[in-house]
Amino acid sequence: MSRDPYEILGVARDATQKDVQSAFRKLAKKYHPDLNPGDTKAEARFKEISTANEILGDEEKRKRFDRGEIDMDGTEQAPRSYYRDYANAGSSRSAYGDAKGFSNFGDPEDIFSSFFSRRGGDGASSRAKGQDRQYSMEVDFIDAVTGTKTQIKLAEGPALDIQIPPGTRDGQTLRLRGKGDAGFGGQKGDALIDIHVRPHRFYTRDGDDIRLDLPISLGEAVLGGKIRVPTPSGPVSVTLPAHSNSGKVLRLKGKGVPKVKGGSGDVYVTLKVTLPEKSDTELSDFITQWQAAHSYDPRKGMGE
Amino acid sequence: MNRLEFCEYLHVEQGIVDVWVAQAWLIPDISGGEAFFRDSDLARARLILDLSERMGLNEPGVDVVMDLVDQLHSLHAVLTNIISAIEVQEPDVKISILRHARER
Predict the structure, then answer these.
(1) Whole-number pLDDT of residue A215
(2) CA distance linking residue A155 with residue A115, whole number of Å
(3) Which residue in the set A32, A92, A207 is minimally distant from B74, CB to CB?
(4) Can you give the residue ranges of every domain in chain B?
(5) pLDDT tier for residue A93 given thresholds of 50, 70 and 90
(6) Pairing of β A267-274 and β A249-252
């Protein structure tokens, strides 16, 4: 992305900050993915608008852009997931489901109301059916990502096999039909199992993506080369470009969490240049010499 | 994630998240007196931040928008389900449904 932020927001180069703000707000209303759940192109467009606003909305950054010091690439927005990805993840049965929009379609027993179960509002159907039983269990981070079979010991009866589907999230509830209490009408309630995913030593989860900080040696940072990067589905070999700084982010496409509708998220690797564990006179001598001729200020632009 | 982790993720004060929960813009799971937030709550919170900070809405404005967003997403999800249900029908059933929909 290296387009002109003025063009993207549709403002003149001498527009006031207020003009920029109002142009951004107009476009954000039109393209925010959560306000336009059916528009598949909205996400890319909103990202572009956000990046343009990040530059022009900040007087300091705007000046730097005008002087040619930064561009749209340097201000790339971090990937994020939108609420619509969850709200539309194949089901309307979320805590936030809202059937108000259907109340004009007929009586509340009709087909539409059967799509909804607002939290706690499920009294009518439990009269005949047995009570649901709530359990919770912990799952390893990797098992939750790749999926696994495990057992859970319920309050009574034998231990039960349960399938943890790939891509299971922390806080997700699995429903085992007919494993709850017996009901008056013969139909048993369900066992609801709240899944708590244990944190991982170095992976963190961000929606369908995985993030990790990856230490690299000084030599690898300066010269580049092939490095092995761990991912939940096994290590992959990555060619590191020469002169790779701390904080640089590599994206391993499709190596993240399997998605419900097919495909997988990505793995984002943030490089962390790491010095040798012990100080080394040879290195210190070399740097002393090198620095004498090549000093630079990495904190330029951070003020006094 | 708990309330503290949730706030750190978003870089917001805990008091702000308490307001969001009090407004029912977020409904965390409560277990043992502690609130647990899901990834979907995180994405929802980012929408609230977009509305209140970048898009300049005040509290009553965010309240109206969140209510409409929930209705919109619910309608969208049901419509998606209905369309995929229509898609697997026999061709003559499909045609009949579409004809009735158009004649309304």
Answers:
(1) 96
(2) 31
(3) A92
(4) 3-103
(5) very low
(6) antiparallel
Place of tokens 């009518």: A124
Q: Under a CB-based contact definition with an 8 Å cutoff, are residues A164 and A181 in contact?
A: no
Whole-number Å distance between alpha carbons of B1 and B3: 7
Best probe of the A interface among B40, B49, B64, B67, by most A CBs < 10 A, is: B40
Q: Which residues contact residue A98 at a Cβ distance below 8 angstroms, ignoring those fewer than 6 apart?
A: A116, A118, B67, B70, B71, B74
Q: pLDDT tens digit string along A284-300?
A: 999 999 999 998 888 98
In this structure, the dihedral spanned by the alpha carbons of residues A149, A150, A152 and A157, taken in order and rounded to 10 degrees, is 70
Tokens 């990790």 identify what position?
Answer: A212
- The string of pLDDT tens digits covering residues A168-209 is 988 888 887 777 776 655 567 777 888 899 999 999 999 899
In this structure, which amino acid lies at residue B33?
A: G
Residue B57: how many CA atoms within 13 Å on its side-chain side? 19
- What is the rounded CA–CA span in Å between residue A81 and residue B38? 13
Is B73 close to A83, i.e. CB distance below 8 A? yes
Contact A226, A240 (CB under 8 A): yes
Q: Is the dihedral of CA A237, A241, A242, A245 positive or negative?
A: negative
**CATH architecture of the domain covering B3-103:** Orthogonal Bundle (1.10)
Answer yes or no: do B75 and A101 touch at CB < 8 A: yes
Is B27 in Cβ contact with A95 (below 8 Å)? Answer: yes
